[in-house]
Specification:
heterotrimer; A alpha/beta; B mainly alpha; C mainly alpha; B: mainly alpha; MetI-like fold; C: mainly alpha; 13 helices; 80% helix
């Protein structure tokens, strides 16, 4: 943390959804940070709260039923949660300082406006340029994300484009206003496999080329290992392990992370090694008891785990950069 | 559908709050009044007593009497019979005809389907009251006539709904699978398509009860279909028009009854829609 | 684009054809001999036969249909058997009154319905929304004739604010037209206002939860633009369908409203004609009113293309 200044610092963020079945603690006391020009991955199964965390940063959670209950989100030193949900200040951040790319390229673009209309509208909102200039900048952004014939594509409607193309458009919108931080929420999940790699490579080359920071939210550990500098692993609304990619890949300390790694195919593995799935399903985060939420699925869980309260994050290495929330010492168990 | 599922749907149904419960109670009381009308009052709705016309509210006549000295409460209660019966039966007629035609149009492509859908379109292009006026010439006066007239004019919405449902059903894999293993069309329609139409049908049916009642009231107001002296709420408003300034309650009461029942039907329909088929929200 | 228009036009023509068959059948399906009804029970058979010949009733049914359509294409809807005047003349006298009330009613419903629907959706669950919900729920269940009678009682008889009956052409005396038209127009519009409000609210709320609205917000688009541009344009598509379907309801409502306020428009004409078994008038009214509906639907189909680019795509 000494060598780089943190761009985004999230402290003790808590977001809940209030449903008829009870309070869903989707984000439960989550803290993390992103440095300048750093690529950070947030990994977890669907429903673990990783997307809601990112939505909370920009206050995009639907209220009601969702509500940000507490915490702080410092972006370049300013606490974003101090601004109102519809305030001018937060709007100036959205799309201009922090841009989001969403999972569903098929539904994330407005079906009744052309790509050009949507792209240049964002540019005009943040840059106060003329229509013509905004259009030209839009064309330029499309060119940067490798869309052929950008001038013609500007006049297309989303339904006239493939999923990969639309995701490129989303990336173009994200970089059009020169954001310092891009939050990519499962950017490739909805795409087919060949397109996934293309879009991810494109995203990385843009982030590296333009010296931006990025948060990649994903359930795909395999994707992360190649691109991310650091990893946060989330489970049931909490971060349960964090550290550099290398450290986590080599010495995963949480049984859940170990399970995740075992369930991902790896080319370097010896032939015939079976993939091991994690048994059970992620918990529904309503009225969870105060204990390690992974306990019921954990192959290493002891009697003590069942009785002890929720473990906090503790450092497990010398540099204190590798943190884990587990009662057990899993050193060397992979 | 297991019990917990039923319970859940029921919960959604009543979660809309007190409003649904109130409408349910309102409807039940009107149905009850309609059934036990002869027990509520000692008068006949036709019994005239010209010497006691326009009587004020009293213990004998809680809502007073009309221009022929007939007890207004009695006529309201018997009016409930006619209105509820007409709207229920006409909606049934519409649902049955619409279901059959919709299934045919949806399942069999080609000329028949086109013909049915275009006739439905044509019917929908004739203003509802205009259609009922013309059809009433054909079916004549009386409850049967009104039921047929309103029933037929409500058919197109059912045809369209069922047609759309069948088309989307046909795309499902289980219908394709049934075809592949050589099940007959009749069996596919009855076993696979029909059951999946019912939730939406029930919703439309409930919502149409209000529409049917409104049409019946409007026809009766115009003096077409069910004609005096048979007591109808619409007819009562019409009859009291000439004495509006002196006895406004005679016009207001039957209108209030119509409104209560129609609103109750609508709220119930909304509730049913949210419980059974939320996709229809904003469409019906 | 031309292909799309031609296709919609074709469908409209088919619908009108079916309506002509329906209106034509009226005269034949309905009990009673039109000529006999025209001349009365006592008229001698020779006179009736003569009239039958004049009305082409003695010819084969297909010939009659062709002759009837030919006449209509030349603006000849036949003669009213009660008024002994051309049906086309009677209708053209009556229709402007109905239209001059129907159009303001439509404009009122669409503007008020959309506006209140948007407000309801934005203020969902708040006090304004609850009040609007109660009002619209009651309005849907309110019979037009009852609202009219109530209005006459309150604003006419009690408060003496508005005239209770009749019609003045806007060209003759505009102020008087407005004063006389207020109550009928409100009665005609009341159901439509309520249903447009409900539909707009429901659709807008659905659209607001869509991913692309989240995208717009995530990109810092002002909330006003998010609602009025990104959401509304999508939400309007189903609402337009609904409004198109409701044009007929307004026209149907004119039968009631004209009866309540004693306005000699086409609705009252039809009602009287049904009472008199004046078949040619009935035929003419049904045909004209349906054609208006079909025409409006056709225009709406074209409007669709403006709002929904997917449909515009199929125009190319």
């Amino acid at each position: 943390m000494q060598d780089k200044t943190p761009l985004l610092v999230v402290k003790n963020l808590r977001t809940s959804f209030f449903t008829s079945a009870g309070e869903v603690k989707a984000v439960n006391d989550v803290s993390y940070h992103v440095d300048e020009e750093e690529v950070v991955a947030i990994v977890g199964e669907s429903g673990c709260g990783k997307s809601v965390t990112q939505m909370s940063v920009l206050q995009l959670v639907q209220t009601p039923p969702g509500k940000i209950l507490g915490g702080e989100v410092f972006y370049k030193g300013k606490d974003l949660l101090k601004y109102g949900q519809k305030s001018k200040e937060i709007r100036a951040i959205r799309g201009a300082e922090i841009s989001m790319i969403f999972q569903e390229p098929m539904t994330s673009l407005n079906p009744v406006f052309t790509i050009g209309q949507q792209l240049s509208q964002v540019i005009r909102v943040h840059k106060h340029v003329s229509r013509k200039e905004a259009w030209a900048e839009g064309v330029e952004a499309l060119r940067k994300v490798g869309i052929p014939e950008p001038e013609a594509r500007m006049k297309n409607y989303p339904f006239e484009m493939s999923g990969g193309m639309r995701q490129r458009v989303m990336i173009a919108i994200a970089i059009a206003c020169n954001s310092s931080l891009i939050i990519a929420d499962e950017p490739t999940t909805a795409l087919d496999v060949t397109t996934q790699a293309q879009v991810m490579e494109l995203l990385m080359s843009i982030v590296k080329g333009l010296k931006k920071a990025m948060i990649v939210v994903t359930h795909n550990l395999g994707l992360v290992t190649r691109y991310a500098d650091r990893i946060y692993v989330m489970y049931a609304g909490k971060i349960i392990e964090s550290g550099t990619t290398e450290e986590i890949m080599k010495h995963p300390m949480h049984p859940y992370t170990i399970g995740l790694l075992k369930s991902v195919p790896n080319l370097s593995d010896e032939k015939g090694k079976a993939l091991v799935p994690i048994e059970g399903a992620p918990p529904i985060v309503i009225n969870l008891p105060d204990r390690c939420a992974f306990c019921p699925r954990c192959p290493y869980a002891t009697e003590d785990c069942m009785n002890a309260s929720m473990p906090g994050l503790r450092p497990v290495d010398v540099g204190q950069k590798h943190l884990v929330a587990c009662h057990l010492d899993m050193r060397g168990s992979r | 559908m297991n019990l917990s599922n039923v319970k859940k749907r029921f919960k959604v149904f009543f979660n809309r709050g007190v409003l649904s419960v109130i409408s349910f109670v309102v409807l039940l009381s009107f149905i009850l009044i309609a059934i036990i009308a002869p027990l509520i009052t000692k008068y006949s709705p036709y019994e005239q007593n010209v010497s006691n016309k326009y009587a004020a509210s009293s213990a004998e006549h809680p809502f007073g009497t009309d221009k022929l000295g007939r007890d207004i409460l009695t006529r309201l209660a018997y009016g409930a019979r006619i209105s509820l019966l007409a709207s229920l039966l006409s909606s049934l007629v519409a649902a049955v005809i619409g279901l059959v035609l919709g299934l045919i149009a949806g399942f069999f492509k080609g000329f028949i389907s086109q013909l049915i859908m275009r006739i439905a379109d044509a019917e929908l292009s004739i203003p509802p009251l205009v259609l009922t006026l013309v059809l009433s010439l054909l079916f004549g006066d009386g409850v049967f006539g009104v039921v047929m007239v309103i029933g037929i004019s409500l058919v197109p919405t059912y045809i369209r709904l069922v047609f759309g449902l069948v088309l989307s059903q046909k795309k499902n894999d289980y219908v394709l699978a049934a075809k592949l293993i050589g099940q007959s069309n009749r069996k596919i329609i009855l076993k696979h398509i029909l059951p999946n139409c019912f939730p939406s049908l029930i919703v439309l049916f409930t919502m149409n009860l209000g529409t049917a009642m409104m049409l019946e009231a409007s026809m009766s107001y115009l003096g077409i279909g069910i004609v005096p002296p048979t007591p109808t709420w619409g007819g009562m408003v019409s009859e009291s028009y000439e004495v509006l300034i002196l006895h406004p309650m005679q016009a207001i009461l039957p209108g209030l009854c119509i409104m209560l029942v129609v609103v109750a039907f609508n709220i119930l329909g909304d509730g049913l829609r949210d419980a059974l088929d939320p996709r229809l929200r904003g469409k019906l | 684009m031309l292909g799309y228009i031609v296709k919609r036009l074709g469908i409209s023509l088919i619908i009108i054809f079916i309506v002509t068959v329906f209106s034509f059948s009226i005269i034949h399906i309905l009990p009673g001999d039109p000529a006999r009804i025209a001349l009365g029970e006592e008229a001698d058979q020779a006179a009736v036969d003569a009239l039958r010949a004049e009305m082409n009733l003695d010819k084969p049914i297909t010939t009659q249909y062709v002759l009837w359509i030919k006449g209509i294409l030349h603006g000849d809807f036949g003669m009213s058997i009660v008024e002994h005047r051309p049906v086309s003349r009677i209708i053209s006298e009556r229709l402007p009154k109905t239209i001059s009330l129907g159009v303001p009613a439509l404009i009122l419903s669409v503007s008020l319905g959309l506006l209140s629907g948007i407000i309801s959706a934005i203020k969902r669950g708040k006090f304004v929304d609850q009040i609007l919900t109660i009002c619209t729920t009651l309005a849907v269940g309110m019979p037009e004739f009852w609202l009219g009678v109530f209005g006459i009682f309150l604003f006419g008889l009690k408060l003496h604010l508005l005239p209770i009956q009749g019609y003045t052409a806007p060209s003759a005396d505009f102020t008087q037209f407005v004063r006389r038209a207020i109550m009928p127009v409100v009665c005609l519009a009341i159901h439509l206002i309520a249903s447009i409000n409900r539909h707009t609210r429901a659709n807008l709320l659905e659209v607001i939860n869509q991913d692309y609205v989240r995208t717009a917000r995530a990109n810092g688009i002002p909330e006003r633009t998010v609602i009025l541009q990104h959401s509304l344009k999508n939400a309007l598509i189903p609402v337009i369908t609904m409004i198109a379907l409701q044009v007929r309801v307004v026209l149907g409502g004119s039968v009631i409203v004209e009866q309540v306020f004693n306005i000699t428009g086409i609705g009252l004409l039809l009602k009287t004609a049904v009472g008199n078994r004046d078949y040619l008038i009935i035929q003419g009214c049904v045909l004209i009113l349906s054609m208006i509906t079909v025409g409006c639907n056709f225009v709406v189909d074209l409007l669709y293309g403006v709002v929904d680019p997917k449909i515009r795509e199929s125009w190319r």
